Automatic annotation (TrEMBL):
Belongs to the HARBI1 family. Its cofactor is a divalent metal cation. The lineage of its organism: Eukaryota, Metazoa, Chordata, Craniata, Vertebrata. It comes from Galemys pyrenaicus. One of its GO terms (molecular function) is nuclease activity. This is Putative nuclease HARBI1. Keywords: Cytoplasm, Hydrolase, Metal-binding, Nuclease, Nucleus. Residues 148-300 form the DDE Tnp4 domain.
Length: 349
C-alpha cells in the first residue's frame, strides 16, 4: 500500500497567518535530563527565554502556520551548544535543517537586540565598590572593576581577497574583546573585530577604551595580560619583575586575571559553536559576530538565574601566545607606569 508523504514548506513552518503554530515538540513531554543533555539548559530557563523572546519570534505574515517560539528557541539552543545543524536535532523537534537555520537567525537577532539589557557595567557607585571589594578579596588587587582579554572565534573565509580576518595562525577569525567580573559575568562584549588585529590594537580602537580614556571610571582599573599596553586605567604584568614586591604584584594580577581565562573556557565548553578546535562558524563575519554576542547574552542570563556556569566540562588550559611576541608591549606611558609603581609600593611592598 502506498504511504502518503507530506512535503512541508520551511517558510510556511516558520511564519504563519493568524499566529497559528506548528508544535511537534512539547517541553512537558521530555525529562529535565534530556533537555540538559541535548539543549544545555533546564526547563525553567527555556520557559524564561520563551517569555523574554516570544513577542519577537511571533511575527505575523501571509503564511498559514508558524513554528512556535518555544521550538525556535530549542532549535537555536541546540545549534549554540552543539555547533551544527545535525539532522537528529531537527528531527527531535520536527523541523528540517533549513528551518533550523532560520530559527537560529531569528533567535540570534532577538538576543542581540537585548544585549544591552544583560551585558553592562554597574551603573552606581555602590555596585562598583562591591566589584572592587570582591576582586580585592580574591588575590589582594585593589581598585579592580573588571578583567579584560580577547578570544578568537574561527569563521569561514569571507572571500579570497580579504586578509583582514586572517589571524597569526593563518586561520580566519573574529577577535572578540570582553570584560568580566569575578563571577564570570560579562560587562563588555565587542565581537566585530577582524582576526588580523592584535589584542592591544582591538582595545585601542574599542568603545571600551574610549569610555575609560574619557574618565568614565575614575580611580578604578581593569586588569589585562601581556598582550595589552599599560594604561592609567589598565594594569598589566611587569615583563621582568625584579623586587619581591613586583613578583607579588605579578602573582596577584595573574591569579585575578585567571577568572576571565576560565570564563572563556566555559563559554567554549557550553557553546560549542564558539570552540574553534571543533570547527569554524559557517557564516559571514557580521552573522558570526551576532551569534557570538547571542551566546554571551545567554551566558549572562544563566548567571542571573543562578546557574553554575563553571559546571560545564572544561577543556584544558587555553593556548597562550609565545611570550616573545609581546616583548614590545612594555609601557611607553609614563603616567601609567607611575600609577603601577605607586600601586606596587602601596599594596605589595
Amino acid at each position: 500500500m502506498a504511504i502518503p508523504i507530506t512535503v512541508l514548506d520551511c517558510d510556511l513552518l516558520l511564519y504563519g497567518r493568524g499566529h497559528r503554530t506548528l508544535d511537534r515538540f512539547k517541553l512537558d513531554d521530555v525529562t529535565d535530563e534530556y533537555l540538559m543533555s541535548v539543549y544545555g539548559f533546564p526547563r525553567q530557563f527555556i520557559y524564561y527565554l520563551v517569555e523574554l523572546l516570544g513577542a519577537s519570534l511571533s511575527r505575523p505574515t501571509q503564511r498559514s502556520r508558524a513554528i512556535s517560539p518555544e521550538t525556535q528557541i530549542l532549535a537555536a539552543l541546540g545549534f549554540y551548544t552543539s555547533g551544527s545543524f545535525q539532522t537528529r536535532m531537527g528531527d527531535a523537534i520536527g523541523i528540517s535543517q533549513a528551518s533550523m537555520s532560520r530559527c537560529v537567525a531569528n533567535v540570534t537577532e532577538a538576543l542581540v537586540e537585548r544585549a544591552s539589557q544583560f551585558i553592562r557595567f554597574p551603573a552606581d557607585e555602590t555596585s562598583m565598590q562591591a566589584l572592587k571589594n570582591e576582586f580585592y578579596g580574591l588575590a589582594g588587587m585593589p581598585g579592580v572593576i573588571g578583567l579584560v582579554d580577547c578570544i578568537h572565534v574561527a569563521i569561514k573565509a569571507p572571500n579570497a581577497e580579504d586578509l583582514s580576518y586572517v589571524n597569526r595562525k593563518g586561520l580566519h577569525s573574529l577577535n572578540c574583546l570582553m570584560v568580566c567580573d569575578i563571577r564570570g559575568a560579562l560587562m563588555t562584549v565587542e565581537t566585530n573585530w577582524p582576526g588580523s588585529l592584535q589584542d592591544y590594537a582591538v582595545l585601542q580602537q574599542s568603545s571600551l577604551s574610549t569610555q575609560f580614556e574619557a574618565g568614565m571610571h575614575k580611580e578604578s582599573w581593569l586588569l589585562g595580560d601581556t598582550s595589552f599596553l599599560l594604561r592609567t586605567w589598565l594594569m598589566t604584568p611587569l615583563h621582568i619583575p625584579e623586587t619581591p614586591a613586583e613578583y607579588r604584584y605579578n602573582r596577584a594580577l595573574s591569579a585575578t586575571h585567571n577568572v576571565i581565562e576560565k570564563t572563556f573556557r566555559t563559554l567554549c565548553s557550553r557553546f560549542r559553536c564558539l570552540d574553534s578546535s571543533k570547527g569554524a562558524l559557517q557564516y559571514s563575519p557580521e552573522k558570526s559576530s551576532h551569534i557570538i554576542l547571542a551566546c554571551c547574552v545567554l551566558h549572562n542570563i544563566s548567571l542571573e538565574h543562578g546557574m553554575d556556569v563553571w559546571s560545564s566540562p572544561m577543556t584544558g588550559p587555553m593556548e597562550q601566545p609565545p611570550e616573545e611576541e609581546y616583548e614590545h608591549m612594555e609601557s611607553l606611558d609614563l603616567d601609567a607606569d607611575r600609577v603601577r609603581q605607586e600601586l606596587i609600593l602601596t599594596h605589595f611592598s
